[in-house]
C-alpha cells in the first residue's frame, strides 16, 4: 500500500476519531437520552421522527446505512428510518438498541484542521457515529462509519450491519468497481496494491464546486470492503 493510499484512508477514519422518547423503556434509557441530548444541542430545526417502542427494538436484527439515513429492520421488515440530519434521535435510538457506547469528545482542530467538533460514539468496534456540534455544509448532523459486518445488541443478540443492497464489510466488490461510472469510483492504491473508494448510493446533493459525488460509499483493500460510510464523497477536491 502506497503512502497516498494510507493517507487517503487514514483521513477518512481520522475524521471520526475525533435517544428519543419511547412507549416503554429498556434499562439505561434515561442515561442514553441525556447523552443524545448533549450530542444534539442546537437551535437548528430537525426532521420530525416517530418514537420506536422497546418491544419493536427487540425485534431488530439488521441496520442498513443508506445515503442520508439509517434503517432498522426485522426479518426484512422496516422498523424505523432515522434521518442523519437528526443527531439526537440517531444516537438515542442506537443507544437503546445497542447499549452504552464508548464515547470521545473532539474539539475543533483536535484531530486535524478538517475535523469538526463532535461527540463520537462507538458500539463494539463495529459502528461509529460522530454527532457534530454544528450541522455540516451538506446538512448532516452525524457522520457514520460501519467497520464490521455485525454488532451485538444490548440484549446480546447479533445485529447485521450493511450498506445499500446488502453490501457488508468483508464483501468483494470487484464487479461493482468495474461497472461503476468513472465519477463514482476513485483509485486510492497503486499497481501493486489496489485500494478503492466506491459510491454505493448518492445523497447530500450540493452545488458547490469540488464536493465530488457524495452519499454512502465504501473503502476497500484490494477489492474487499473495509469501511462503509456516509457522508463520504468520492473524488472530492475541496481541502476539507
What does this structure look like?
The protein is of the alpha+beta class and 240 residues long. 20% of the residues lie in helices and 30% in strands. It contains 5 helices and 13 strands. The chain has helices spanning 3-17, 29-40, 54-57, 87-98, 174-179, and strands at residues 62-65, 69-74, 77-83, 102-106, 118-123, 127-132, 142-146, 150-152, 158-162, 185-187, 196-202, 215-221, 224-230. The strands form 2 sheets. It has an 8-stranded antiparallel beta sheet with strand order 4-5-6-7-13-12-11-10, sandwiched between helices. Strand 12 and strand 13 form a beta hairpin. Helix 2 (29-40) runs antiparallel to helix 4. It starts with a helix and ends in a 10-residue tail after the last strand. 41% of the residues are buried. Residues 1-48 have low confidence and may be disordered.
Give a short summary of the structure.
With 240 residues, this protein is of the alpha+beta class.
State the total count of DSSP E strands: 13
The radius of gyration over CA amounts to: 17 Å
Helix content: 10-25%
> Can you count the helices?
5
Percentage of residues in strands:
25-35%
Report the principal-axis shape: globular
- Mean pLDDT metric: 82
Computed structural class? alpha+beta
Poorly predicted regions:
1-48
Measured between the Cα atoms of the first and last residue, the distance is 23 Å
Q: Strand count, sense and closure of the main sheet?
A: 8 strands, antiparallel
Amino acid at each position: 500500500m502506497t503512502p497516498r493510499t494510507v493517507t487517503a484512508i487514514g483521513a477518512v477514519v481520522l475524521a471520526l476519531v475525533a435517544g428519543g422518547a419511547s412507549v416503554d423503556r429498556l434499562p439505561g434509557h434515561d442515561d442514553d437520552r441525556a447523552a443524545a441530548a448533549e450530542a444534539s444541542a442546537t437551535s437548528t430545526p430537525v426532521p420530525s421522527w416517530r418514537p420506536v417502542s422497546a418491544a419493536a427494538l427487540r425485534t431488530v436484527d439488521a441496520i442498513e446505512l443508506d445515503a442520508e439515513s439509517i434503517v432498522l429492520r426485522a426479518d426484512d421488515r422496516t422498523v424505523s428510518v432515522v434521518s442523519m440530519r437528526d443527531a439526537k434521535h440517531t444516537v438515542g435510538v442506537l443507544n437503546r438498541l445497542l447499549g452504552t457506547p464508548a464515547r470521545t469528545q473532539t474539539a475543533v482542530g483536535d484531530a486535524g484542521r478538517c475535523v469538526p467538533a463532535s461527540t463520537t460514539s462507538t458500539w463494539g468496534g463495529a459502528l461509529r457515529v460522530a454527532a457534530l456540534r454544528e450541522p455540516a455544509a451538506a446538512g448532516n448532523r452525524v457522520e457514520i462509519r460501519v467497520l464490521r459486518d455485525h454488532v451485538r445488541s444490548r440484549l446480546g443478540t447479533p445485529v447485521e450491519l450493511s450498506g445499500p443492497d446488502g453490501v457488508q464489510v468483508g464483501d468483494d466488490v470487484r464487479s461493482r468497481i468495474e461497472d461503476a461510472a468513472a465519477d463514482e469510483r476513485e483509485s486510492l492504491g497503486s499497481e501493486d496494491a489496489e485500494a478503492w473508494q466506491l459510491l454505493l448510493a448518492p445523497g447530500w446533493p450540493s452545488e458547490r464546486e469540488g464536493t465530488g459525488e457524495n452519499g454512502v460509499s465504501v473503502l476497500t483493500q484490494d477489492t474487499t470492503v473495509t469501511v462503509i460510510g456516509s457522508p463520504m464523497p468520492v473524488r472530492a477536491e475541496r481541502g476539507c
